[in-house]
Amino acid sequence: MAYERVNWENLPSTNTPVNADNLNKMDKGIANADKLSTYSTSETKIGTWIDGKPLYRKVYTGTKVSGSNKTISLSNLNIDYVNFYGFIYGNQGTTEGAYQFPINYYENPNSFIRANIHRKYMNLTIVSAASTYFNGDYKIVVEYTKTTD
């Protein structure tokens, strides 16, 4: 289902008569607002970027072993502009998910987790120190525009 961009200033006020056209405008606004709060492992169109291009969101999940690199290919997304953020549920000993760390957390050279995107190869790589703190499930949100739009 395609969502039309809605100008929120043109939505009916509480003093506007209820009719089919005004209800349709409100329904479109509500549908677009729902997309903004959607986080899915499937590509979801969430709005419009500042240059007028459609903006998409996709969530990547998985498990990362501390002290190793985890690489995720983004090449099939046809990315133009990209932003990402996320976190990892770190373990402490045998207690799974005892800590939650943001991606790009740095305490010292022996305590860090970071991520980067290589724009030429369109790979998202997660790197961490060899610590049980950074051994666990991750969730990374990628928001982007496409070269094909």
Describe the structure.
The protein is mainly beta and 149 residues long. It has two domains: 1-37, no CATH class; 44-146, no CATH class. It has one helix at 20-36, and strands at 44-48, 54-64, 69-73, 79-92, 95-102, 105-108, 111-118, 123-128, 136-146. The strands form two sheets. Strands 1-2-9-4-5 form a five-stranded antiparallel beta sheet. Strands 3-8-7-6 form a four-stranded antiparallel beta sheet, with no helix packed on it. The longest helix is centred in the first third of the chain and has 17 residues, at 20-36. It is elongated and about 60 Å long. The protein starts with 19 loop residues before the first helix and ends with a strand.
Helix content class: 10-25%
The sequence of SSEs as H and E is HEEEEEEEEE
> How far apart lie the N and C ends?
17 Å
| DSSP strand content | over 45%
Strand tally: 9
What is the radius of gyration computed over CA atoms, rounded to a whole number of angstroms?
A: 20 Å
Strand order in space, largest sheet:
1-2-9-4-5
User: Main sheet, how many strands, which sense, barrel?
Assistant: 5 strands, antiparallel
Summarize model confidence as the mean pLDDT: 82
Total of helices: 1
> Which word captures the global form?
elongated
What structural class should be given to the helix and strand makeup?
Answer: mainly beta
Overall structural domain count: 2
Low-confidence stretches: none
Please provide a brief summary of the model.
This protein is mainly β and 149 residues long. The chain is built from one helix and nine strands, in the order αβββββββββ. The chain folds into two domains: 1-37, no CATH class; 44-146, no CATH class.
